[in-house]
Amino acid sequence: MARPHPLPVDPLAEAKRQWLMHGWDHAADGMSLVTSVMRAQQLLLARVDAALRPFALSFARYEVLRLLAFSRTGTLPLSSVVARLQVHATSVSSTADRLVRDGLIARHRDPHDGRAALLELTEVGRELVERATTSLNDEVFAAPGISAEDSADLVAIVARMRKAAGDFADPRPQPDPL
Fold it and tell me: Which residues form the HTH marR-type domain (predicted)?
């Protein structure tokens, strides 16, 4: 949430000063990093939530719809959605239940594996996710609040952190597109 007036002191810089003053020098830079990234996440999420509010979508619901819209057929196994969004299966299942309830997706039994579920984007869901994407692009993604160069640097730094945490491996070489 934006403040009407900026604070006279950066609270995160003050927190780092306190860490150093208390003799926690070994952890001060890490504390500063973690709290800075978490605050940036709060700021970005507030903007995303504001852009999605007119569509009655949370970012989690939007991500499921967008992922399905990106697929060739608008249908993906629930397990693929879980893997690609990198969240717990229970969270995706709960989100999918709400999307089904709202008529934005349908859930079917996988004809090849009766134990698995397929999620399918409905036409109403497709129309909604396209309008929501336009809003996010215009209100958040086109101007995230930092320069293009800083954005590229930050994405690269975070990607290295994510890779080290096991989020992904370097992709195998791909043939040139035809």
Answer: 30-163
